[in-house]
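Hi all, long-time lurker, first post. I run a small reading group and we've been trying to get comfortable going from sequence to structure in the token notation. Rather than ask abstract questions, I figured I'd post a concrete chain and ask someone more experienced to write out its structure so we can walk through it together at our next meeting. Sequence below, copied exactly:
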Amino acid sequence: MPRRYVTVDVFTDQAFGGNPLAVVLDAEGLTDAQMQAIAREFGYSESTFVLPPRDAANTARVRIFTPTREVPFAGHPNVGTAVVLAREWARAGRSVPGHFVFEEGAGLVPVALKNHGEVVVAAELRAPERLSIGATVSVADAADCLGLVASDVRVDDHAPCVASVGLPFLIVELASREALRRASAERSVHARVLPPIGVDGVHAYVRGTNAGEWHARMFAPLDAMPEDPATGSANAAMIAMRAALPNAGEGERMWLIRQGEDMGRPSRLLGRTLREAGAVTSVHVGGSVVVMMAGVLHV
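-- Answer (accepted) --
Happy to help. Here is the structure in token form:
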């Protein structure tokens, strides 16, 4: 049976930037093994499969696969899938609402749609879970995971630790942009350090020179991703963790995260957090999407 797909670049307004995503629109009837094989065939950090919702009040059920496994939630798959689905609806003459709600392994994911004129060109997701903080690792192990030395790791605000708003990552703040530029994926160290703490990716970040600006890189060689160009779920966890710091202050805060620059796929992620009565109550990540290819799978 032919099944339509669309590929997009997410968290960018330029073709060949951002993070590529494949969206399979006619996924009903595919087995888990077929979805995994298709994701492996595309070879992107993630591919999504759009299915009818279990609850008619929601927009769709969306399953997300990396080349090696299914994940319960991810950032750029939600943003990219929302834009693709909105354009498909518009092309079919269906009314496009201001937001979608996707059913995923981590829960319901609301995604707000953003238009340029009559065309949906961007989207912003709300993370499905509140911030959770897990295990910490030593500075030495965090540095080793990134091919750096201990002095490259900054611990003023937090130790290297696991954080999640739907998908967990080891989050490491670095001391300089130069250290982030030098970082690399040390697979053997990842294999030693990460499985015991329940993650397979390391998200390193550093403060930018401009207020509210941050730079990040995410490495996951254990999941067949030496480096990810733009990681919405990891950046959502990072900004949630920073918004929860004792001196972070109350209210809404805006974030600009630049990722992918050191691997030639510049990405721009826009974050938004809300802190009320000392707790981070909502975390949002969004950005632009560029449609790249469309075709048919013969499975």
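A couple of things your group might point at:
The chain has a mean pLDDT of 97.
The CA atoms of residues 191 and 226 lie 13 Å apart.
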